Amino acid sequence: MMNVSDCAVTMVPSLKNRALNYGDGCFSTMLSRKGHIQLLDRHTKRLVNDAKKLKIINSKVSFSIDDLKNLIKTFALESYNAAKQSTETKSVETEWQIVKLLIARGDSERGYAPSMDSAPVFIPSAKDYYPVADHTVSLGLAHMKLAEQSILSGVKHLNRLEQVMAKIELADHEGVDDLILTNAKGLVIELTSSNVFYCIDGIWHTPCVEKSGVNGVMRQYILDYMQRNQIICNVSDMHVSALLSAQTAFSCNAVTQLVPVSHVSIGNESTCYDIGPSQCLAQKISDEIAKEKS
Amino acid sequence: MMNVSDCAVTMVPSLKNRALNYGDGCFSTMLSRKGHIQLLDRHTKRLVNDAKKLKIINSKVSFSIDDLKNLIKTFALESYNAAKQSTETKSVETEWQIVKLLIARGDSERGYAPSMDSAPVFIPSAKDYYPVADHTVSLGLAHMKLAEQSILSGVKHLNRLEQVMAKIELADHEGVDDLILTNAKGLVIELTSSNVFYCIDGIWHTPCVEKSGVNGVMRQYILDYMQRNQIICNVSDMHVSALLSAQTAFSCNAVTQLVPVSHVSIGNESTCYDIGPSQCLAQKISDEIAKEKS
Fold it and tell me: Which residues make Cβ contacts (< 8 Å) with residue B85, sequence separation at least 6?
């Protein structure tokens, strides 16, 4: 088995980097507190799963998950220490960083065909983060529809033009903070950069991500939390109109964690949500994550 | 209007480059002979069209097409001169280069949302090319289906994981050189890195690329050539089984130009093609392109 030390860790990607040329890679965006990554086990597991789905990890190329974890841990600690040392240049100090690890298939000559034995290239980066207290989001509906591609679905790969176009569209929607992305059939998939959960008559629902969408680390964590705590949650396809009959809803990703949705507008109809139940769940999950050892 | 000189031309993409992080950009791959780009007008027009579709060019950001042309021309000439000077290290000399221009939306902070006024980043690259005489290709059918996404369709953007996965799949297909890519309905779209034309009972056909696929520069050139020369060609959706009843077919892109298909295998059925008509058309078009002033 190849080791992480056999792979290039770089901050200066080459012209032949396949992430640059074809979006040929995957990534995870993690929240770090005082240099410790939240949900590190899940992030590394997800990175390895996604790299396998893209066949970046294959019969010739692999690396140890523990080495990957160490790489991220070391980088997060160094980034936090560097941020602390540079506090004099900042207006507000923060103990939080967003740490991202991008895994490119590596470098190759021209052409879509990859070399199956080229070593992956790891590109870590970090950025200060300032959490917003009592944050809520309001939702509109994107005109753009997500395509269905089952071989890429669920994977947090680097082909993110749909999300980029959705964010551009968001600028044209007045009075909403984020957009619901649906597929061509009008089924809810996700938001522009987070997953979504909603509750109708005491039953939670979250969209299936088997044909489109990202199977987010926080989505997975919440589903496990709900199962452990006997909270019923259906993972199923539902038409976007279902959101109008929900009583509470939240968006989630690994950085913002759970953010209650204040209201949703779809066409001429809109619904105001009770943010209480989402806030309560957000607090419980946030407390549980904070107790985890990274 | 922004000028090309206001945009960064770089060979060292930064960590914040949006092509690297999200595949947020487009590109064109061009054939250069003795430092002169073939079909340069079409390549620059395509790059500008694609950049507009992705809203890299928008109300705040634009650049002159002539400046873009000059940038490519200068780069192609310099690359050819550099290649000539380094001939001593090569076993075979070549007058051909493949020149690629990648246009990234530019750099940005973390997140899918782009800044609409950030200057695009141009990344040119070049590589020696050795044309293969009397080249033909045999085709199989990819299991992988192309997704339908009308806002990205036709565009040669950097989200190319479907093509990468198709090239990986190709390695498992014995005895064929390339794969036919279809959509979920089984309609022919393109090959892994080229468009396809086929002739049934004297009528040429090429797939529509309105919902999936790339509207290649050579595809456009051939369609115009056929129109100028009263050769009937239908641009339409056709089920992949239609290829079994064709008499001749060719693949095409800006680098390989027209390559006759020798035979096609779909499931248990296969058809051998008459390569004569495709070879004849390939020669005529190659001669016409060679006469164009770049």
Answer: none
